[in-house]
Every structure is written in structure tokens, then in C-alpha cells.
Amino acid sequence: MDDCLFCKIVAGEIPSKTVYEDDLVKAFYDINPCAPVHFLVIPKTHIPSVNGINAENSAVVSHIFEVIARLAKEMKLDAGYRVVTNCGKAAGQTVQHLHFHVIAGRDLTLTMG
């Protein structure tokens, strides 16, 4: 998508501090971290949100979680980490491109809603 912030990051039009990249996904540090470790993992193809996942693109979501597990192991996040995605404006989704926040490095309280 021409106006999608994350598509522009994937295309290299906007710089990011890359954590990991392969043919399907890109992981990069959040510009406004809420914990000592806070990075995003996104599909390189544009999927607007969880609502856009279907039979044709669901394999990339599985791959994203494989990447998250690999990075958590490499970063020694043994104490635990949180994986978060927001779906829709009312849930706090500010970029309309599927993305998963990986948050760690401090005790995370269970505050929902």
C-alpha cells in the first residue's frame, strides 16, 4: 500500500532498527518502547489486521510466531515476554498493517482493557 507506514519500512523508504528480516517478515524495534525490549514483527505483504488473515496468507502468521520464538531464545527472554496485537481503531491499532509487539525486559502486569 502506498500510504502504509510499515509497507514503507519494508520497502526501505523509512529507516528502522532491524532485529530480523527474511523473505516473509521483518522485525524492528518500536520507536516508542514501553519496556526495555520492545520490537515489532510484521509480514512483508500488506495484511491490514487480524481480520485480513485468510487461507491464502495464514502461513505467514505461523512463520511470524516461529520468528518470535527464535528471537526470544536468541535474546534470552527466559523470564518471559508478551506478544500483543491490536485489531481495529477501538482496540488501539494505529497502523493498519498486521503487526505483533514483543515486549519484555521487566515485569509485565496483567492489565487488560
From TrEMBL:
Q: Which CDD domains match?
A: PKCI_related
Stored InterPro entries: Histidine_triad_CS (IPR019808), Histidine_triad_HIT (IPR001310), HIT-like (IPR011146), HIT-like_sf (IPR036265)
Record: active site: 99
Cite a single Pfam family from the UniProt record: HIT
According to the entry, every stretch annotated as the HIT domain falls at 5-113
One GO molecular-function entry: catalytic activity
Short sequence motif named Histidine triad motif, residue ranges: 97-101
What's the protein here called? HIT domain-containing protein
